[in-house]
Amino acid sequence: MDRSRMTKVVERIPIFRGLSPHRLQKVLDICSERHFRAGQTVCRAGDESAEFYVVLSGDLSVRTEAGLELASIGRMGVVGEMGVLTDRPRSARIVATKETTALRIGKDDLDRLMDADREIGLHIYREFAHLLCDRLRRNNAYLEQFYFTVEDLTANPPE
Description:
Residues 15-131 form the Cyclic nucleotide-binding domain. This is Cyclic nucleotide-binding domain-containing protein. InterPro entries: cNMP-bd_CS, cNMP-bd_dom, cNMP-bd_dom_sf, Env_Response_Regulators, RmlC-like_jellyroll. It comes from Handelsmanbacteria sp. (strain RIFCSPLOWO2_12_FULL_64_10). The chain has helices at 3-10, 21-29, 81-86, 107-116, 118-155; strands at residues 31-36, 41-43, 51-57, 60-63, 69-73, 78-79, 93-96, 100-106. It is α+β, with helices and mostly antiparallel strands. The protein has a domain at 3-106: Jelly Rolls. The strands form 2 sheets. It has a 4-stranded antiparallel beta sheet. It has a 4-stranded antiparallel beta sheet with strand order 2-7-4-5, with no helix packed on it. α1 crosses α2 (21-29) and α4 packs across α5 (118-155). 24% of the residues are buried.
């Protein structure tokens, strides 16, 4: 993808939305485009967290090592941010469920960029916090639904 088209894509990505054109160019400088085949493993639980991805097209599945799907990440979705933020190993396996194109941003490049431009760092950390809070709220709702389903089944067992 050429640079002007990539700029238009990056400015629409929620975690970068609101950055000035100059700062968007700095972000673009550390991005690389990656392509994944359907069924290809992007990373495994326990791997080093050296980068995060923003899905441009296709879908990525976040799974336990046993294969249980925890989440499906589509266009403009982010994966791998937890490990980049915490510097801990990957917590799940990521698999492309169909042909997928994603932007890759390396942790070391991101750290250097955020050290050089604190405004970018603040913006990205704030957006990561919003993303993680949204996921936590969604997971809380799933747990609540699960709890009430179990409670209902316990009180009224099927015959």
